[in-house]
Amino acid sequence: MTGALFLAQILNGFQLGVLLFLLSAGLTLVLGIMHCINLAHGSLFMAGAYLAATVFERTQSFMLAALAAVTGTLLLGLAVERMVLAKLYARDHLYQVLATFGIILFFNEAARVFWGQAPIFMNVPPALDGTIDLFGLAYPAYRFAIIAIGLAVGLLLYVVIHRTRIGMLIRAGASDAAMVSALGVNIGRLNALVFAAGAALAGLAGLMSAPIISVQPGMGEPVLILALVVLITGGIGSIRGAFYGALIVGAVDTVGRAFLPMALREMLETSLAQAAGPAIASMLIYLLMAVVLAVRPAGLFPVRHG
After folding, report:
1. What does the alpha-carbon distance between residue 15 and residue 160 come to, in Å, rounded to a whole number?
2. Per-residue model confidence as pLDDT tens for the chain (306 residues)
3. Residues 6+ away with beta carbon under 8 Å from 120
4. Of 107, 140, 182, 212, which has fewest CB within 10 angstroms of its CB?
5. How far apart are CA 230 and CA 41, in angstroms?
6. How far apart are CA 114 and CA 42, in angstroms?
7. CA 256 and chain centroid, separation
C-alpha cells in the first residue's frame, strides 16, 4: 500500500461522505423537523439524476442540468407534500410509510416509462474533466468539486438554520409546532417549505452523482438505506449529526472496501480472505451503526432542543 493510494481512498471516502450528507441533510429536515417518514426521498434523488442527465444530453450545459435537477425536484417535492403527505401528518406513521412506499413504486415505474429500463449515463462537464494536484496526488477535478459544493451547502445550511429568522422558525417548529402555530406562524406553509428544500437537496445529490454512477430505475433505494444509516449514526434531526455521520460512514465504507480485503489476505488463507473480505467490508457501516446504537442510542451528535 502506498501513501498515494491511502490518500486517494481517504479523499474518495470524504467525497462519498459529502454526497451522503447532501442526501441525508434533506432527509434530516423532513424526518427530524417535520417528524414525517419519507421513504420516497431516494426517489427524489433518482429524479434529480434523470433530469440532470436528460438536460445535459440535450444542451451540453451543466448549469442548465443543475437548474433542471434542483428546480425540478423542488417542485416535485412540493407536489408530493401538498398532494399526499400534508393529509397524513396527523395520522400514524404507518400511513406515511405506506404512502411513501407507494410513491417509490410510482416513481420507479414512471422512470421506466419515460426513460426505459436500460441505464443512461451523463458525462463529466468538460471544465471538470481533468485532475488537480492535491498534496502531489492527481485527483479527479469533478470529485473535488463534489467535496467543495457539499461543504459549501453544509455551511449554507448552518447559516440558514442557526442565523436566520426562517431557521429560528424551523427550529421552533421542531420543538413545539403547536406553540409556533399559536403565535401566528403558518405551520403548513413552513412544512411545505422544509419538504421542498429537502427534495431540492436530494435533487442536488442526484445531479452530482449522475456523472459517476449509472442513472437507472430503482437507484434511489440503495442510497436511501445509506442515508438512513447516516441519520441513525449521526443523530436523527441534527444537521450537525448528518454532516459528521455522513463523513464517518463515507470514510468507513470506502476505506473498508479498499483495505480490509488486503489486510485479511495478510492474516488468512488467500481463498478465505477473498471470500470473507468483500462480505465483511460491505457490512462495516452496519456494524458501525450497531455499535453506535449500543453506546449512544440517540446517535453521535443528537439534536438539542431548548
Report:
1. 23
2. 577 788 888 888 888 999 899 888 888 878 877 778 889 999 999 999 999 999 999 999 999 999 999 999 999 999 999 999 888 888 888 999 999 999 999 999 999 999 999 999 999 998 888 888 887 788 899 999 999 998 999 899 889 888 888 888 877 776 777 777 787 778 788 888 889 999 999 999 999 999 998 899 999 999 899 989 998 898 887 888 888 999 999 999 888 888 887 787 777 777 777 777 778 878 899 999 999 999 998 889 887 654
3. 50, 53, 54, 57, 214, 215, 216
4. 182
5. 14
6. 18
7. 20
Could you tell me the three cell numbers for 154? 453544509
